Every structure is written in structure tokens, then in C-alpha cells.
Amino acid sequence: MVSGRMLTVGAFNGGRVQADNKPFRVKLSEQSFETYQLEGPSNELKITRGELRQMYYNMTAIRYVEARSEMMSVSQGMG
């Protein structure tokens, strides 16, 4: 397991937040991916703020459904 991951984001430009549809670069630390006898994926990503917001929304919605499902299965003795 990799500890101390670092994320460098160029989302800000001179103190002003860039527009939602303007792409910027996200660079992950070199230790973000460990591979065995394979070349790892690129550590640099080009993405927009709107795409990041949508990813975050999707992630939180999935987590909410998982948490509610767990609560229901425990309370009803399912599974």
C-alpha cells in the first residue's frame, strides 16, 4: 500500500478559479501506482472542473446507496 499520496492541481490561475469547461492538468505522485513487470498508467490527467464535480457527485451517490443498503441489510437481517 502506498502511503502519503500527493496530488498537484493546477485548477487556480492567479487566484481566480478557472471556468468549469476549461481543462487543466492534474499530476499524481510517482508512487500513486505500483505495477509488477508492467508500465503503469500516466500520472498526468487533463480534466475540467465540471467533470471533477460530476465524478464527485457520482462517488457520493454510490457511497450513499452502499451505506443505506448496509443499514437495511443489518436492520432486516438480510444476507
Q: Would you spell out the secondary-structure blueprint of this structure?
A:
Layout: E1 7-9, E2 12-13, E3 16-17, E4 24-28, E5 44-47, H1 49-76
Antiparallel strand pairs: 1-4, 2-3, 4-5
Description:
The chain has 79 residues and is an alpha+beta fold. It has one domain (7-76). 35% of the residues lie in helices and 20% in strands. It has 1 helix and 5 strands. The strands form 2 sheets. Strands 1-4-5 form a 3-stranded antiparallel sheet. A hairpin with a 2-residue loop joins strand 2 (12-13) and strand 3. It is flat and about 45 Å long. The protein starts with 6 loop residues before the first strand and ends with a helix.
Secondary structure class reads: alpha+beta
Strand content: 15-25%
Order of helices and strands: EEEEEH
* Count of separate DSSP helical elements: 1
Question: Terminal Cα separation, in Å?
Answer: 30 Å
Form type: flat
Strand order of the largest sheet: 1-4-5
How many domain regions?
A: 1
Biggest sheet overview: 3 strands, antiparallel
- Mean pLDDT figure: 79
What's the alpha carbon Rg, rounded to whole Å? 18 Å
Number of strands: 5
Helix content range: 25-40%
Spans of at least 5 consecutive residues whose pLDDT stays below 50 are none
Structural features:
single chain; 79 residues; alpha+beta; two-stranded antiparallel sheet; 5 strands; 20% strand
How would you summarize what this structure contains?
This protein has 79 residues and is α+β, with helices and mostly antiparallel strands.
